[in-house]
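chain below, 318 aa
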Amino acid sequence: MSRALRAPSDRPAAACAGLALALLLASATLYAAPPAHEAGKKSLTAAEVLRSSTASDWRALDPQNTLYLELPAGRVVIELAPQFAPHHVANVEALARGHYFDGLAVMRAQDNYVVQWGDPDAKKPVGAAQRAVGAEFERALRGLAITKLPDPDTYAPEIGFVDGFPVAAEPVTGRAWLVHCYGMLGAGRDNDVDSGGGTELYVVIGQAPRHLDRNVTLLGRVVSGMERLSVMPRGSGTLGFYERPGERTPIRSLRLAADVPAAERSDLEVLRTDTPTFLAYAEARRSRHEEWFKVPAGRIDVCNVPIPIRPRASGAEK
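prediction:
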């Protein structure tokens, strides 16, 4: 079993409990069958839910936990998850501040699986960072306010979201973990579970490889620029590695947003996942009511709830 670490909560215990209860009640109400007198009430589409959202339903990205991966095609914005992988996040931030990734390359693109970047020769000095840190495959469930989804999951007893990240949980053991949905960021490792540290990073570009859950440390997710990773030419070598250096996509830089001048940052905001608006959005995704859909699924998978992101409104509070 991995050496799990419990991340500190930034909310008092009572507040976490209150939030969890409120979300549970809201979820139970939302997913219940509508009363007979409301049977004819028009259901909202996801787009309508988002149009009716308020400023308080959205949150800005924290520049202290946001990475900018600069590629020849443009910027990829990655939100980090220190509440699940604090040591990996800290190490990747140290690598970014030491300019470790500058001049390295995307060296692998495996179809329907992942793209991966790092040092192909594993020789570049890591500076003040570490080459490996302890595995962070899961963390304590206690202290997490999970916005739960109502449907069964193949891989875990419970699924939902924490701060926009897809999460699975096992109440019997009191453990929770991030899951391998499209766009999730992970730290590559060798057979030793403690051999990863973020010097090699990958992003899921295919159908969610959930069999990797709790076998690799996940530490973030792409929130913008995913199209710049998903369209990369597939490698012809084993596991999608490029066989010739010229096939690799060079990395111009990887920077912490906090280290980039404010005028050069991507000013984005993300839909919060701890509100009734998000529950309404998830339900609209669960049972599609657009005219095109004739048979709403009435089910939702945690990896089929894309978290909306948009440019911040001008004049929004920083």
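The chain has two domains: 14-32+43-59+269-311, 60-262. The helical segments are 13-31, 46-51, 86-97, 227-230, 276-286.
thats it, cya
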